[in-house]
Design brief:
Blueprint (H helix, E strand, L loop, with lengths): L25 H14 L4 H6 L3 H16 L6 H14 L3 H17 L6 H8 L7 H15 L10 H5 L4 H23 L7 H4 L3
Helix pairs in contact: 4-5, 4-6, 4-7, 4-9, 5-6, 7-9
Protein name: Alkylhydroperoxidase
GO molecular function, one term: peroxiredoxin activity
Organism: Deinococcus puniceus
Length: 200
C-alpha cells in the first residue's frame, strides 16, 4: 500500500513516511479519532509510529497501561519520571509532550507547574519531596548508567516508602520511556505545537 512520502521540512513530523487514514488499520483510525475527541488533536507520535500499524497498537497497549491506567505509582510520579528520562535522553518529542502533561498534573495538585520546566533540564533544581527526588535520581541513573545499576540502588527507593510493586512499575516506566525516546530521537519525531502552550 503506498504511503505518503516524507513531508517538506516545514511540516515534517518524522524523517520517514507518515501514513494517512486510508493507510492504517481500523484500530489505529479509532485511536486517532479518540485522541482527537479527548485532547483536540492527534499526537504526532500516533501518526508517525502508525507507519507499522499493528506494532504501533501493541506499543500503545503497553504504554497506555503503564501511563494512563491506575497503577502502583501516582500519575504525577509516572509523568515526573517520564520527563526526567526524556530530558536525560534529550528526546524533544517526549520532553515537550510529557512536560506539558507534568505541568497539568502539578497544577491539579496545587503545585507550581513551572517545576516541570526545571525537571526536564535538571530535576535537582526543582523543589521536590524526598520521595520524588529519589524517583528522579533512580530514573536518571538507570537511563544514563544502566550497566552500573546494582541492588543497592533500590535502597533509596525503599527508604522513601516504595514497595516492590512500585519499584517494578518504576523500572517499567523508565524502560518504556527509554524505548520511546530512542524511537522518537532516531526518526526525528517532533511534538505537536499544541503541547508548548498547555498548562502555561
Amino acid at each position: 500500500m503506498p504511503m505518503t512520502p516524507p513531508q517538506s521540512t516545514q511540516n515534517q513530523i518524522s524523517w520517514l513516511a507518515v501514513p494517512t487514514e486510508t493507510d492504517v488499520p481500523e484500530g489505529v483510525r479509532k485511536l486517532w479519532s479518540k485522541a482527537e475527541a479527548n485532547v483536540g488533536f492527534v499526537p504526532n507520535v500516533f501518526r508517525a509510529q502508525a507507519l507499522n500499524g499493528e506494532q504501533f497498537l501493541a506499543w500503545w497497549g503497553y504504554f497506555n497501561l503503564l501511563l494512563n491506567k491506575e497503577g502502583f505509582l501516582t500519575p504525577l510520579e509516572r509523568e515526573m519520571v517520564a520527563v526526567v528520562v526524556s530530558g536525560a535522553n534529550r528526546c524533544i518529542y517526549c520532553a515537550v509532550s510529557h512536560g506539558a502533561a507534568l505541568r497539568e498534573f502539578l497544577r491539579q495538585a496545587g503545585e507550581n507547574p513551572h517545576t516541570a520546566d526545571l525537571v526536564v533540564v535538571n530535576w535537582r533544581h526543582a523543589d521536590l519531596s524526598p520521595r520524588m527526588a529519589a524517583l528522579c535520581a533512580y530514573a536518571e541513573r538507570l537511563t544514563l548508567h544502566p550497566a552500573e545499576v546494582a541492588e543497592a540502588d533500590l535502597q533509596p527507593l525503599r527508604d522513601v516508602g516504595l514497595n516492590d510493586q512500585q519499584i517494578l512499575e518504576l523500572v517499567q516506566v523508565i524502560g518504556m520511556f527509554n524505548l520511546t525516546n530512542r524511537v522518537s530521537g532516531a526518526l526525528g519525531f517532533l511534538p505537536n505545537a499544541e503541547y508548548h502552550g498547555q498548562a502555561r
